[in-house]
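debug: dumping io for the single-chain case to check the tokenizer round-trip. Nothing else runs in this session.
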Amino acid sequence: YYMIFPRNQYGLKKQVDDAMNQILSEDPLYREKLQQKYAEIHESSRANFTKEEKAYIAGHPVVRVAVLQNDEPYYTRTISGLSRGAFPDYYEQLARLTGLQFVYRVYDTQPEAIEAVKKDEADVIAMYSNGLIAAYQSGLRLTNSYAAFNAVLVTHQNTTPDALRTIAVKERSRTLIRQHLSAGIHAELIGCNTANECFERLTDGTVDGVICGLPSANWFINQNSSNIYSLSPVSSLSMENCSALAYDNAV
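debug: decoded output
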């Protein structure tokens, strides 16, 4: 659902967009809370599958999920070899509903994960947020989105917009960010593999800011001295996170 304004009311639209971004910055689960309150769908204890889907599950009981190394807060592997983060939690729920078993294949970069899926070395990429067109051009088929996050800009305190020369972004969402970046920001986008890498560059001064989804920004702020960093919403930029598979893997 969207709010609609007269064409000449751009100022009002921007005020509302900024207010909505502020709500989500202060309460990232606000949208989900509204959904649960007014449009909750009670899930069945087991998904209903077609004959074709049941046959696929029987022949492919283990699904290989491509993830990136040190991709907090989404994925990390402990010293003891256990998988932790949002992805393992999410796929644990999918396993309960489908009967599939999910195992993780760890890669250093998003292009490596994409190639692994296209070469059948992995079955699904855990996160793709670069948009439908870029996915199609890469030979990928996207699932329905499983999460949507507002984008935020993280900088050192007192950094002004006109001082932004370079901004680190995750490579898996670089195209989307470039397409929707505010006309007032003319910085060069520096592609990184994970939020970890983006924030390392911000910390050592290699870049002037980081644009990422709110969960990554909150994770970084919680690991560091929050009083030396500034977090501000990026108006009109929301990232839809999907899983991605090889295009011919429709089932």
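debug: round-trip ok. The radius of gyration is 19 Å.
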